[in-house]
Amino acid sequence: MSASTTMTQTADINLTESRPGFAAEITGLDFANGVTEDASCFLRDAVTKYGVVVIRSTNLTDDIHVELARTFGELDDNRLKYDELFDVSNVEADGSTVDSESPKGQANKGNSLFHVDSSFNPCRAGYSLLLAHELPPPGTGGATAFADTRTAFDDLDSETKQDLLEHNYIAAHSILHSKKLAASEFFANIDPADCPMGRHYLVQRHEPSGRINLYLAAHIHHIEGLETEESKSLFEKLFKHATQEKYVVEIEWQQPGDLIIWDNTCTMHRAVGGSFAKKYRRDETGDGAYMKLDKEIAKPIREMTRPPKTMLQACFKPTFGTFLAAYFGLDCMMRAILNKEAGNAQLKNSNGTTPLCLASEKGHTRIIKLLIEKGASVNTYDLTRTTPLLCAAYNGHEDAVTLFETPISTAIRYNRVEILELMLSSGANPDIAGRSLRTPLSLATINGNETVAELLIQWGANVNHTDSSGQTPLDHAAQNNHTGLVELLMQNGADPLVAYDGTRNPMWNAAKDGEEVLARSLLQQGSEPNMKYEKGQTPLFKAVQQDRIAVAELLSSYGADVNFRDRIGQTPLMLIIKDYHEREMWNPGPIDPGRLVGFLLERGADPNLMDHNGRTALLRAVDNNADNPMGIYEQICVVRMLLEKGARPDAQDNHGRTPLTTASWLDDKEVEHLLLTEVFGFSSEDMNGEEPTRIRNYHDISDDSLKTSHGKGDD
């Protein structure tokens, strides 16, 4: 190990870094008289900072090895004299070296791949303490390599980081998958997908240090929610990145008594081969003295560290058996486990998922009843604030799955109505919210499940609850055009006037999207047609702007004011003339502005109203510049309709311009001619006292104030 920094704990204890911030060697620790509090605190702090710590020539006895391990947390159980230890050697019970081609030898090949201890279990391993008892001759190999997954995450490009954090991917870990990767021929007939897997977040916060890290391992079979190729591509990208040489440290085993302690939650490790392979005994006992991060969870089964004789044997172990019985609906097995260990009803894996969540997801009613009878909480959160009630609302829409699950959320997600009712009757909170603050009712409305929504409302769910984005269940129902749910919610007190982002609400969205049935339902249930939203505009503004004539007619029939003015004083009539170009961008294809103008004029739109700049609809139509590129036919049509409804060609704006002077200044002969002929004999003068017909002859030397003012529009 190359020393880059040396720190002294006492006069006798030194710590030397292998790389800055990762892996360190400690000398001077004496365990002859047991484990002192100072020594254990020093080691825990060192492992938290560096991830990996090696202590040379410890001469630990098994008793002290276990004592030291317990200072890091609760120990796993296993099969040797000391249950907390297990053997990872290549030595058989008779002392012979394991044949590399034997089943055990083939299975051990997976250790040469970068992995994390026990990630294939429901519970992650926390720390591992690996003690060397017998080693091959010096210089013949036998190192252990470690990869720093905290720094690997830090160095990811921002786009990849954003993708990982936004999607919060879950990876499925299988010990059979890694074994098959390392010995493909031997395990050719094994399909890891047929067996249970450990599910863990791909990106996690390292709890002791607070840093973010990648939780990677060769055990990862797939990433949930992604197609096979996408999953493979993302995993390979991250795995290749995290195992680059700059993140990896190899630690040589020098002599018996060497001890390596590492944190499985922020590192990967693998066995490094050498010339000793297949020739020398390797007896490194102690990797089994590893801790669970989840201290409240019952001890993981040791059979998952080696192939069980039968699946049934593995199933009946406390932790794995409880989750397996919940997942597959094995009620006899679950009853036997709970009768022996009732506390298993409250188990959580490393993601905080409970057996009740799994049973809710799969619809196993009898299992749920058993778990609840034994004290399983229907309101418990996982690590990301999801409850069982939240899990049932999506009705199998995997692409919309929230990762914030509880037993109730699982029931809703998978449309388990009778399970949902069972949980509610058992005291589940119908308004319990996940990290996005979405309640079970919000999830039901997103998915359009009226039965679930009605049940939740019957149990007192708040119909006006807002999530983290300010949206209510009514917002979600309207956005997804679930008209039946809209009626149900409004009949039960949902407020249609709540604007979820301060600018719009379901009525606004219905007008924008042209959802006539939804708009009618909202109006029938009491939605106000003249409620002001974005820019002080009503839904009618948005309907005509988006050329939603059917919705505009509906709004008008319910009393929408066609002369309503927004914050800058413009009416819907002014808006559609001004924003003709914008409407083309929103609605590709031909739009007839004359049809929209005619619609509003027929319903009483006043063509002589002025905005805050004194501009009328006629002046806007005449001022047909690059921002309002109507064709000449559409422009003449609109101008004629406005004139027929009494629009005044002589109405001056705040700069003294009239429609007639503007047409003359723009040298728009067709429009000017129309204005003059429609109002025969008209000779209005502009603010400078010049005749409109004379401005055309003199516009190149016209009054500077007229030229400067032309084109000034709305705020």
UniProtKB/TrEMBL annotation:
* PROSITE patterns cross-referenced by the UniProt entry: ANK_REP_REGION, ANK_REPEAT
ANK repeats located where? 351-383, 403-435, 436-468, 469-501, 535-567, 613-654
Domain TauD/TfdA-like, by residue range, is 18-281
Q: Which Gene3D superfamilies does the record associate with it? A: Ankyrin repeat-containing domain, Clavaminate synthase-like
Instruction: Provide this UniProt record's keywords sorted from A to Z.
Output: ANK repeat, Oxidoreductase, Repeat
| SMART domains attached to this UniProt entry | ANK
Q: Which domain of life is it from?
A: Eukaryota
Quick check: keyword Cell membrane in the entry?
A: no
Please state what the protein is called: TauD/TfdA-like domain-containing protein
Q: Which organism is it from?
A: Aspergillus cristatus
Organismal lineage: Eukaryota, Fungi, Dikarya, Ascomycota, Pezizomycotina
